[in-house]
Amino acid sequence: MDIHILADGNQTLKQAHDLTEEIEHTTQQFLPNVDVTIHPEPNMKYTIAHKMMQKASLYIFCFLLVFSLGGTSASSRDLVIISANVGECTLAVEANDQWHTLRLRAHHPQGRGCHIDRDSMLSALSAALLKAELPRLEGSYSSLFVGRLIDYPWLSQYLATTASHDKGWDVKKGKPIAMDINRYVAQLLSRRELLAQLETVFAQGGYRIIGVSVEKVLVGGLREVPLYQGAMAPGLVPYDAMVWFRLEKS
Predict the structure, then answer these.
(1) CA R_g for the chain
(2) Over 90: is that where the pLDDT of 60 sits?
(3) Are 100 and 115 within 8 A, CB to CB?
(4) Closest of 147, 77, 161, 81 to residue 116, by C-alpha
């Protein structure tokens, strides 16, 4: 579900991102099986009164969604194939057979970020793809949604460090030199050096990755990159986004 909201046009990109995450988290408390993506639109006349009304209307909106989408969410509910604890978080692979999609869901019980390492991510995907007993993956699936990239520090670090050395990225302005930022980040995440680490796992289920889709890219300094321990070079880089890996059955 895509929702467009009016937000303070004077706030920073990070503040807008944090607001959308708060709304998405609150909405999913009411409708845990519905994927919600918030798109903030700038309102230069935004006031404190608007902010207070937005907070109150959020809960009213979620309450109404429960009734208006109750039947829909029940019929298109994601099925949990496998679930495992990774640190303080739960990592689950879910399938939606109505839409033929997969989701890798990292969830912290207090709504905080997760630090899912590469091996845990690949292990969860492998277990789901190879699982023979019910519930299991059946049919074919067209994409895997991994959610926020910062829940997977190894992916966030790859994106940030690759962009910082890439000729197509302007570290001073914090944007690509010649294309849309979503397209640019999708191209970085489509490089063979990264996809090769994932394709071996997907091949176990008879899939290959045919592309990457990206939304809501967040840009900041390297200090924003989770668990980053390299040199703190100056400049701005992409380090977070909502990411889908598009799949095709071999």
Answers:
(1) 19
(2) no
(3) no
(4) 147
Question: In the structure, what pLDDT confidence band is assigned to residue 247 with cuts at 50, 70 and 90?
Answer: very high
- For tokens 């404190």, the residue is 48
**What are 164's two structure tokens?**
């910082």
The span from the CA of 23 to the CA of 220, in Å, is 22
- Could you give the CA distance from residue 29 to residue 8 in angstroms, rounded to a whole number? 24
Query: What φ, ψ does residue 227 adopt, rounded to 5°?
Result: 60, 20
What residue type is assigned to position 22 of the chain? E
Answer yes or no: are the C-beta atoms of 179 and 245 closer than 8 Å.
no
Spatial neighbors of 231 by CB under 8 A, at least 6 apart, are none
Q: What is the pTM of this model?
A: 0.75
Instruction: Report the alpha-carbon distance of residue 11 to residue 191 in Å, rounded.
Output: 33
Whether 23 contacts 38, CB under 8 Å: yes
Domains of the chain: 2-74 (3.30.70), 78-249 (no CATH)
Helix (H, G, I), strand (E, B) or coil at 138: coil
User: According to DSSP H, which parts of the chain are helical?
Assistant: 13-30, 48-68, 70-75, 118-130, 153-164, 181-189, 192-203
Residue 104 and residue 145 in contact, taking contact as beta carbons nearer than 8 Å: yes
- The answer to whether 123 touches 193, Cβ cutoff 8 Å, is no
What confidence score (pLDDT) does residue 112 get? 86
